[in-house]
């Protein structure tokens, strides 16, 4: 114990000597312009541009009005003082008592768990220093704090601090925070709202009232308890305050592509820092297309609302639509309601891939010399997976006998696909999926044919696009470049592009996938106004997750639908019923979902605004068309037979 105390005494003695010597020299020879304390810190907003150069969003500081300390309620000031600096009106800018308390706590815990910065130091750090944590910066911060205290009154310092403290979302100052979170002036905030503001500023990301309402409520209640302990509020005020909800408004609600904007915000904060992003006047060229995003959001929200009413309240999902040739993200949806959940299901949710994985099975099979015209028997089979017998079934529990592999893929047959995987070799299928950038671990079992691998929508859209893009993988991305206020590029995207599959094989798969979407359109009874299209649906066991991946010559889109807690969507809730309608409405529209006040021609014209470049898929010129009966595999010339399809060989 004596050794422990002697270390503390020596540390304090060293600090005192250092401050007396270096401090006297610094204070005697330095002056600082403190006019920045009352300057408007908004700077220039950073502008988000879509792929055609049109503005669709901004990042900017929100400091609407500098308010005087005398207009702020007493309980607001007390909430910040009791949390940040109880000795504020007693110390000269630095708190030796706070330093001693911090040393004791940190030595006792064996790590840094408590700081000793005063409000004056925090203000100095905010205005004059970067966030780098170096010893020299800390010393300068303390000396500047003493200078501030010599030239400004305590009231002026506290006023400047409360007008400049950061609350996240580009919000600086208590007045701006009060307006954004509750739509009221700071003079009108309640006791619990004052404590909430004091909670947020400790760590705007960790204690965000939008992202982490539970964490900020817990800290708010702790501050209210401290205010009661220090006789700043009564016991009745404490009980009434902790019973209140946060009731905050989301600063980012009612915006285009909110999940994508949030993803860009996080990326750029890490790249250039908060100050540059919110006040540096950046120009941010994104890959988004405004019309596509709006059409996509409308289709997604309308259908999810329908599914919530008919299936399950927790139904949600994610969607990514990319330019097939470049990988540029034209639309992204990370969930039904951004104000309720910032979790980006398009990039963060990992769900089993289901039958969409079958494209890799058949891609590997074609590489091994098998053909889509080959006939396999759809029949009951029994396999040993691990040490357990496995008897796979088709989704309708029926077996249809002989069929070609083209028929099996377009009808999402399970047993023929599993047989194809076993003939091809599981390791070859895994290699194919990895080449197409499916990164998750894949178990070498026959069930892999049915998509037992956890993936994100972003992974799926990039890998599925290989079949559309001549066998080339292009990494999905959302930024082109970022320029500073002087017009100089400070970031340019570097996109992965790889030839991962023979263009001939990609073309053969793409052709068969066009049969699948034609079948879906007939089953769903929809009228198609667009051009060529291809697609593949997928459903995980018990309908816990359903997928649809669809493509036109211009766009490739992946959609998943599922409950966040992985409950079943209901019996027979296939991707054709849950995800496909969103894709279809995005691209064209169900007959029952169209604006009936408009003619077919008007609806077609509106759709042309979304897609108007390519009308045909690219097929490798080294291939030729052959007509076959897709149940028997026999070649034919009878184009009128409904069982005859045109394959590429």
Shape: elongated
For the record, the count of structural domains works out to 3
Structural class determined from secondary elements:
alpha+beta
Number of helices: 22
Please tally the β strands and state the result: 20
Query: CATH superfamily assignment of the largest domain?
Result: DD-peptidase/beta-lactamase superfamily
What would CATH call the class of the largest domain? Alpha Beta
- Taking all residues together, what is the mean pLDDT? 85
Reported by name, the CATH topology of the largest domain is Beta-lactamase
Largest beta-sheet characterization: 5 strands, mixed
Helix content: 40-55%
Oligomer: single chain
Q: What's the gyration radius in Å?
A: 31 Å
| CATH architecture type of the largest domain | 3-Layer(aba) Sandwich
Low-confidence region ranges: 24-28, 111-115, 589-598
* Beta-strand percentage range: 5-15%
Distance between the termini: 84 Å
Strand order of the largest sheet: 2-1-3-13-14
């Amino acid at each position: 114990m004596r050794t422990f105390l002697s270390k503390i005494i020596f540390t304090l003695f060293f600090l005192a000597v250092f401050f007396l010597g270096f401090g006297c020299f610094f204070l005697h020879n330095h002056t600082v312009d403190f006019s920045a304390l009352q300057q408007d810190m908004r700077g220039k907003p950073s502008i988000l541009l879509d792929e055609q150069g049109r503005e669709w969003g901004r990042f900017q500081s929100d400091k609407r009005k500098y308010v005087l300390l005398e207009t702020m309620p007493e309980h607001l000031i007390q909430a910040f003082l009791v949390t940040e600096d109880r000795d504020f009106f007693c110390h000269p800018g630095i708190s030796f008592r706070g330093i001693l308390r911090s040393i004791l706590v940190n030595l006792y815990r064996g790590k840094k768990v408590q700081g000793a910065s005063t409000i004056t130091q925090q203000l100095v750090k905010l205005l004059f220093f970067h966030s780098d944590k170096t010893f020299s910066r800390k010393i300068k911060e303390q000396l500047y704090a003493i200078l501030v205290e010599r030239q400004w009154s305590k009231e002026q310092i506290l006023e400047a601090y409360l007008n400049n403290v950061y609350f996240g979302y580009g919000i600086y100052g208590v007045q701006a925070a009060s307006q954004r979170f509750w739509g009221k002036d700071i003079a009108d905030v309640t006791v619990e709202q004052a404590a909430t503001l004091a909670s947020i500023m400790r760590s705007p990301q960790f204690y965000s009232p939008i992202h982490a309402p539970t964490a900020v409520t817990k800290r708010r209640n702790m501050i209210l308890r401290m205010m009661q302990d220090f006789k700043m509020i009564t016991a009745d005020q404490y009980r009434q305050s902790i019973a209140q909800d946060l009731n905050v408004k989301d600063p980012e609600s009612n915006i285009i592509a909110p999940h994508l904007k949030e993803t860009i915000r996080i990326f750029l904060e890490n790249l250039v820092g908060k100050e540059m992003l919110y006040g540096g006047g950046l120009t941010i060229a994104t890959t988004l297309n405004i019309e596509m995003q709006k059409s996509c959001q409308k289709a997604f929200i309308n259908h999810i609302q329908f599914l919530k009413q008919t299936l399950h309240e927790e139904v949600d999902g994610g969607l990514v639509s990319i330019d097939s040739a470049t990988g540029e993200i034209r639309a992204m949806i990370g969930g039904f309601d951004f104000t309720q959940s910032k979790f980006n299901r398009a990039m963060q949710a990992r769900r089993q891939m289901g039958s969409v994985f079958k494209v890799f099975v058949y891609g590997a099979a074609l590489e091994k010399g098998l053909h889509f015209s080959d006939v396999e028997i759809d029949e009951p089979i029994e396999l040993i997976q691990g040490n357990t017998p496995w008897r796979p079934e088709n989704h309708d529990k029926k077996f249809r006998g002989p069929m070609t592999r083209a028929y099996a893929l377009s009808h999402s047959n399970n047993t023929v696909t599993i047989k194809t995987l076993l003939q091809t070799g599981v390791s070859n299928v895994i290699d194919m999926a990895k080449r197409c950038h499916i990164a998750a671990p894949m178990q070498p079992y026959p069930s892999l044919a049915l998509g037992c691998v956890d993936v994100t929508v972003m992974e799926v859209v990039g890998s599925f696009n290989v079949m559309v893009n001549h066998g080339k993988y292009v990494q999905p991305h959302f930024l082109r470049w970022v320029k500073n206020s002087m017009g100089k590029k400070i970031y340019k995207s570097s996109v992965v592009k790889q030839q991962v599959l023979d263009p001939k094989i990609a073309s053969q798969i793409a052709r068969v996938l066009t049969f699948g979407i034609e079948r879906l359109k007939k089953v769903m009874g929809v009228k198609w106004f667009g051009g060529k299209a291809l697609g593949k649906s997928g459903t995980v066991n018990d309908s816990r997750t359903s997928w649809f991946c669809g493509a036109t010559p211009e766009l490739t889109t992946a959609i998943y639908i599922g409950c966040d807690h992985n409950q079943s969507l209901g019996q027979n809730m296939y991707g054709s019923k849950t995800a496909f309608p969103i894709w279809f409405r995005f691209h064209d529209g169900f007959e029952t979902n169209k604006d009936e006040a408009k003619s077919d021609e008007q609806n077609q014209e509106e759709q042309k605004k979304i897609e108007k470049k390519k009308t045909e898929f690219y097929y490798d010129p080294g291939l030729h068309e052959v007509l076959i009966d897709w149940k028997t595999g026999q070649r034919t010339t009878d184009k009128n037979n409904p069982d005859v399809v045109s394959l590429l060989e």
